[in-house]
Amino acid sequence: xxxxxxxxxxxxxxxxxxxxxxxxxxxxxxxxxxxxxxxxxxxxxxxxxxxxxxxxxxxxxxxxxxxxxxxxxxxxxxxxxxxxxxxxxxxxxxxxxxxxxxxxxxxxxxxxxxxxxxxxxxxxxxxxxxxxxxxxxxxxxxxxxxxxxxxxxxxxxxxxxxxxxxxxxxxxxxxxxxxxxxxxxxxxxxxxxxxxxxxxxxxx
Length: 204
Description:
Blueprint: E1 6-10, E2 23-27, E3 38-43, E4 49-53, E5 56-60, E6 65-69, E7 76-77, E8 86-89, E9 94-98, E10 102-107, E11 112-114, H1 117-123, E12 130-135, E13 141-145, E14 150-153, E15 160-164, H2 180-195
Antiparallel strand pairs: 1-2, 3-4, 4-5, 5-6, 7-10, 8-9, 9-10, 10-11, 12-13, 13-14, 14-15
């Protein structure tokens, strides 16, 4: 797979002018990155960068790296996600990492991998096995369960509510499929006006 060099750019000032230039600094394994094969990148609320490489979560503070190891053999089974590395950061110091039918959770404060996600989901009010998980731009968490129910966990009050059930999908097409995504999008406007700001988006 093609190697990717991780770049950090420094902005000379807040009021940028056309003639000013960005300064780019290449960051690679020479600088402490665990592996040049970068899978995904995201940012923590404290502005540190998360760089996911093969087998390691790299935390970069602008000067040095810290590392969190993970073992995909201990990951939670996520049967509805077939994509590659996707990272979410919630507002409770958690990093969620999805990759090809697997889900992993990390505690940013302790910088440790969190096993036994079933117990975490149970504390959040989810009793059925989760088959996919999403976090929107307002840090609300969405859980799709094995019985095709969609739950919504409000970032502000930490309450989890059933948002959509399989029964609410109505009549199924002849091919037996009823896309959950379209049902979610149909009901999002009510949720936006009632529970969260309009700029929030569901990220699939």
